[in-house]
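Throughout our pipeline, every protein is held as a single compact record rather than as scattered files. The remainder of this section carries one protein's record, kept here as part of the documentation.

===
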Amino acid sequence: MSEPLLRRPPFLKPRPLFATCDAGLEEVLASELRAQGVENPIPEHRGVGFMGDPKAMWRANLECRVANRILLPLAEFNAATPDDLYEGVRRIDWAQWMQVGQTLAIDASTNRSQLENTAYIAQKAKDAICDRFREECGQRPSVDKMAPDIRINIHLEDDHAIVCLDSSGERLHRRGYRLETGDAPLKETLAAGILLLSGYDGKHPLLDPMCGSGTFPIEAALIARNVAPGLIRLREGGAGFGFQRWRSFNRAAFEEVVEDAYDRIVPSDHPTIMGSDIDREVLEKAKRNAERANVANELTFEERRLSQVSSVGDKGLFVVNPPYGHRLNRGLTLEGLYETLGDLLKQRFTGYRAAILASQDAPYNCIGLHSSLRHPLRNGPIECLLLGYEVYEGSKKGAPHGDRFEGRKQGYPRSSKPGIKPFKKGYPKSKPEPQDESAPSEASSPLPSPDEEA
């Protein structure tokens, strides 16, 4: 039998879509989608539902900084038994979406359902897809769990199945720039979410004093330049997106969306973005990651001890992901680390906001400041709190009225600067701003001067 003729393109009008994200980032993701023109996105647990056409789906993949995947639901049905699951998957017209010569993989999950074995669910769904193709054209697609052409998502909840196409392919946190990491790296989508929850908009300096492989500074530079993070995946050798391999993919229309994303990149005239660390080797990794993200000229990485860092300018964001272990290098305790962070903020970062990602059992009270934000997040398997602080002269009572930590109220900041035409091999170039190396006088401070050897 010959391969069936291509059906009418199945995705021409808006239809339901679902963007997944880590718990605690749902409102940020909804704000991102609204900024892209999506009407009435609906935050749910670990995701946001919305209506969209193909362009809305492409933009979500390209531009969302905190989304993990963008899913396109194909069918819903009761699946209390293996036969129910098989028949429901088999009824879907798979030839609308893929060709028989393409490979597929199925991600399955289940909750409160009689079908509890995810491997069995995936196997049963794969059999249904392959049997339908064999009946229609005498051939069947192959399975490739590592690098499939088509990725399918099946979730069972209370014996109810939802079958989706994964339009993203690789998870969206895999931007393509962070090929080298240090210990316990922070996921790119989580780093971007922390920056957005902290109200970062690229208008003031940013400092990460324990930057590791550079995720916070790099994501900050992408935000400041209004660079869609998905553009990095479209370079030669990049992961691209799953929808580019769908049978109905409109390449010409997608290229217009990509061109528009490039046009909205803004010049690199933002204030200082700096990362520092005591590990020279990991800083070299951070520099190479920044080069792959095309933001190396926007950033400064310096080898400094925590006690040597100081602020740049009168306002800015101090962001850090401290270690979670109970004892640190050189015998420093976790309590001592948080005390040092508090001393730094009070003595050298007056006027700054601070965002600290701490495990829920961390001794963050040792910071000695009242937190204006405590937002639950997860860093992999670790339950965390995003702690927000505003550092003022004197007591909290002296804080200017209305100058509060924005937190998630600010959502996703959009640049008001006009877009410019970039160089296609990167982003518009400009000379990095000179940095203010001056440090405040600290004659009575227990901390050494930033320029001293600790």
User: Anything to note?
Assistant: The domain at 15-166 is CATH 3.30.2130.30 (VC0802-like).
